[in-house]
Amino acid sequence: MSFSVSYTRSRNSGRPFLLSFSLGGRVHMSVPWVYIGDLPSKIDSQVTLRGWLYNMRSSGKIHFLQLRDGTGTVQGVMVKSEVSEDLFAVAKGLRLEASVEVTGLVRRDERAPSGVELSVSGLKILQNPESEYPIGKKDHGIDFLLDNRHLWLRSSRQYAIMKIRDRVIWAAREFLHSDGYLLVDSPIISGAAGEGASGLFEIDYFDSKAYLAQTGQLYAEAAAAAYGKVYCFGPTFRAEKSKTRRHLTEFWMLEPEVAFYDHKDNMDLQERLIVHLVSQVLEHCGEELHTLERDVSKLENIKSPFPHLQYSEAIDMLSRLGSSTLYGSDLGNEDETILTKQFDRPVFIENYPKSVKAFYMKEHPDNPDLVLCDDLLAPEGYGEIIGGSQREDDYDRLLARIREEGLPEEPYDWYLDLRRYGTFVHSGFGMGIERVVAWVSGLQHIREAIPWPRTIYRLKP
RNA sequence: UCCUCGGUAGCUCAAUCGGCAGAGCGGGUGGCUGUUAACCACUAGGUUCGAGGUUCGAGUCCUCGCCGAGGAGCCA
Question: Per-residue pLDDT tens for A17-67?
Fold first, then answer.
């Protein structure tokens, strides 16, 4: 038996072609490497697939090889009477997740879920695992799956989530870019705290201390003064010892900041963005939502206009619904869950008390105890996905707020400069990507919404 | 940091009142020409998280420790 293969490069595409392929005496000439996702256009052609064996069944004289290559999955059917004895025996010895090259005829088949199958005539084992694949076909516990995140990502469920995450990010950037926003990223290493000293990761920075960014907002404000409509997008870090289904220590945040937008313009932008993201996921990720068994009708509700509640109205509503949260304190997770269950689409909670919000938010013109801000809560109990505000643009008031909060002034001198040189009404917000992905995908826990979740007790893999 | 729950075969979990350590999946062997987490038969596989203690007898009860999960607070 011989296993040999040779390649050349197509002049047009640069994609390698298999010039010849031989196994067990059979030789296939010029069998092109194709992706599984392209098979529907290759019916009745001989092709070679490269990928992994994610499952295998056998009925004695027929092997069913389930293959995955990142563009889709397909079943390869190897019939004993159609291949050599040796090849059939070799295939029987394959373990799950073996990497393989499989050659065969693409065929329509009513019995296949995708409608397409491969009649296998050739097989090259790139590597057959020497031990059994850790992730089996039956259920696993979350601890085991997180320990094996590097392998768990191969599952159809995780693939679906990653595709939705990709779509959410792609759609958000496309939405902003096409509306004239400039991407101006912010630093991850900073010499000063963003929103307050707690929850910061401290790192050694040569002979001094530095911190991992909790937000890029202050930098985005500077960029907005330079370029008008801007956003930043990157990882942010919170050293809080949170252990909940909606917290990570490292997560990705999209932060638009817009010159001459007030509080209302800001909420309008948030609403348009969320409607766009959901509609894009519905349009492009139907298969993935099906894999995740997501109730799509819940997403089809996500249309303008979103309801708005003043903070004080939210407190009243919560009181009627049995919450003991009193006016003056922030809403708890339980409160958010109760509120969001009253609506079939995201709900804005506006104008919180100044005391529970950050120093940079602009004071409400009609009530100095409130600030012009909003939290956007996703439905079905998912809760806060966006926090935004109009920023304080008055030099004296901003400085007073920094002092009231007991913050050091020196680190904010450059931030105050933005109010010295051409100050301007401006607003912005931060959207947590993983929270949006978790909501749209219908996940029980945010950790599945990021490839490599970082939580308090997990740094590996 | 606090509250709650958990740790038994490679994995997911059972084990009645404290009384022989079990099943499914996975592994191995064999069977099956259309399987869809395939199925059927046989088979191997255990320091019950660790250290003490109570008891004739501990996976089970007690004490301490380790590890993890869910939630609270905080936040996106």
Answer: 333 344 443 444 578 999 999 999 999 999 999 999 999 888 888 999 999
User: Could you read off the pLDDT of A125-172 as tens digits, one per residue?
Assistant: 999 888 888 887 777 888 888 888 888 999 889 999 999 999 999 999
Q: Classify residue A33 by its DSSP letter.
A: B
Distance A73 CA to B41 C1' (A): 32
Å from A294 (CA) to B15 (C1')?
Answer: 37
Find the nucleotide nearest A433 (Cα to C1′): B76
Q: Is the CATH number 2.40.50.140 carried by domain A3-127? A: yes
Looking only at Cα atoms, what is the longest distance across chain A?
86
Q: Whole-number Å distance, CA A113 to C1' B35? A: 13
CB count in 10 Å sphere of residue A364? 19
- As a dihedral over the C-alpha atoms of residue A374, residue A375, residue A379, residue A381, rounded to 10 degrees, the angle is -150
Structural tokens at position A396: 């004296």
Task: Say which nucleotide is closest to residue A58, CA to C1' distance.
Answer: B35
Residue A429, nucleotide of least CA–C1' distance: B76
Q: Delimit the domains of chain A by residue range.
A: 3-127, 144-449
Q: Which residue is nearest to nucleotide B26 (CA to C1')?
A: A136
Give me the mean pLDDT over the A55-81 stretch.
Answer: 91
Cis status, amide bond into A365, omega within 30 of 0: no
CA of A459 to C1' of B61 (A): 37
CA of A66 to C1' of B17 (A): 50
Token pair of A114 as six digits: 């995708």
List pLDDT tens digits, range A389-435. Answer: 999 999 999 999 999 888 888 889 999 999 999 999 999 999 999 99
Q: What is the ipTM of this complex?
A: 0.84
Task: Give, in Å, how far the C1' of B36 lies from the CA of A152.
Answer: 21
Protein CA at A418 to nucleotide C1' at B5, angstroms: 51
A211's CB contacts (< 8 A; 6+ apart) are A189, A190, A191, A192, A193, A200, A201, A202, A203
For residue A1, give every residue at least 6 positions away whose Cβ sits within 8 Å of its Cβ, in sequence order, or none. Answer: A23, A24, A25, A84, A86, A87
pLDDT greater than 90 at residue A234: yes
On strand B, nucleotides with any atom < 7 Å from a protein CB are 1-2, 10-13, 24-28, 31-39, 67-76
How far is A102 from A109, CA to CA, in rounded Å? 18
DSSP A307: P
A386: nt with nearest C1' to CA = B76
CATH 3.30.930.10 fits A144-449, yes or no: yes
